[in-house]
Amino acid sequence: MIHLDKWMSPILSDITAAAAIIAAGILINWICQSIFRWFARHKIETGNSHWHSYLVKRHLGHHALLIIPGLVMYMLPYLFYEKDDSFIRLMHRADIVYLLIVMIMIANAILLAFLDFYSTTEKNRSRPLQGLIQALQVMLYFVGAIIIVAVVIDKSPTVLLTGLGASAAVLMLVFKDSILGFVAGVQLSQNNMIKLGDWIQMPDGSANGTVEQITLNTVKVRNWDNTISMIPPYNLVTTTFKNWRGMQESGGRRVDKQIFVDLNTLEVCTKEMMVNLCKAVPAMSHILSEAPWMGAIKDDSPKEQLPTNIQLYRMYIEHYLRNHPDVNCSLDIIITQKEATAYGLPIEVYFFTREKRWDMYERKQSDIFDHLMSMAQDFGIRLYQRP
């Protein structure tokens, strides 16, 4: 045992002993970290670096080595003082706080390393655990802080927890967003309501884009204009929102539009008119040849047996869509006439494009409707346009 108080005052001897213990801890930590860095580099050079990406990225090995100087510093005070000396109790208490902080750092690194490992596969990346990991981190820091404070004031942690129980309402208010976010995040994950890469759209227009990040308190959405929207997970559980994932995973994207026809241009087509129509629109020859009622039409057929120009126009629209390379014919193609309105007679055109990207989708459907509207005049149809 080294008696420093023989050569200096008690206060100075305590300061000197504390400085010597801390310096010894720093030296031991430097030696341990240097050996670990050499060992890690050696592993990389030999090609076995798979484990290294998880061990070093979150500094798990470096944090774990901090335990060694902590244990050494716990034993060193016995070189200078008796077992029951107040200085030893003070140093031990400080060293326990140090070791607790190190253990919190190690536990946090393990959580983050697990998150990295979990996110290595595409399936797991689509259902992230970041919100759950953040909740566990909050619990870790909270419990760790309670134990550290208990060690500093030399009280049992249960005493502090009992005191905190009386202020539970205040704690609930402080951590309200985190609690609601955690519960909402669990619901979103378990019900597979949202995942990374989903295109979501909020009814109030606050977000319309791709989900980039899901955390404990926020869902990060990159909108189509490259702005960023941060949405609390609780809002996604309590309010309605549109998730376009089903469309992205299906064989096409829906188009549902109407072409308004002027009712004054509705007329019955005689056989002569149909012959002229086949000359103007060659595809109509094939369409009419497959019509089951075409063989019964004669030159003197009554009007009730003759088709209308709008009926033929609807037949042409369906034929055009079923033979269009950008239309998915395996999904529904419905051409129907709706109830007449003050704006004309609406013809509803319902189909699915193969292209699902927004820019190409808009371009393809615009090209299709440009053609359909331009062909209306060949059928003697005038599209409604408000005067």
Low-confidence stretches: none
Number of separate domains: 3
What is the number of E strands? 8
- Gyration radius (Cα, Å) is 38 Å
Average pLDDT rating: 80
Keywords:
387 residues; alpha+beta; SH3 type barrels; 3 domains; five-stranded antiparallel beta sheet; three-stranded antiparallel beta sheet; 16 helices
Give a structural overview.
The chain has 387 residues and is α+β, with helices and mostly antiparallel strands. It has three domains: 4-118, no CATH class; 151-249, SH3 type barrels (Roll), CATH 2.30.30.60; 252-379, no CATH class. 55% of the residues lie in helices and 11% in strands. It contains 16 helices and eight strands. It has helices at 10-45, 50-57, 60-65, 67-75, 86-118, 122-125, 130-152, 157-166, 168-174, 176-190, 233-238, 245-249, 271-280, 283-289, 309-322, 358-375, and strands spanning 199-201, 208-214, 219-223, 228-231, 242-243, 253-261, 334-337, 345-353. A five-stranded antiparallel β-sheet has the order 4-3-2-1-5. Strand 7 and strand 8 form a beta hairpin. Helix 1 packs antiparallel against helix 4 (67-75), helix 5 (86-118) runs antiparallel to helix 7 (130-152) and helix 7 crosses helix 8. The longest helix is centred in the first third of the chain and has 36 residues, at 10-45. The termini are far apart.
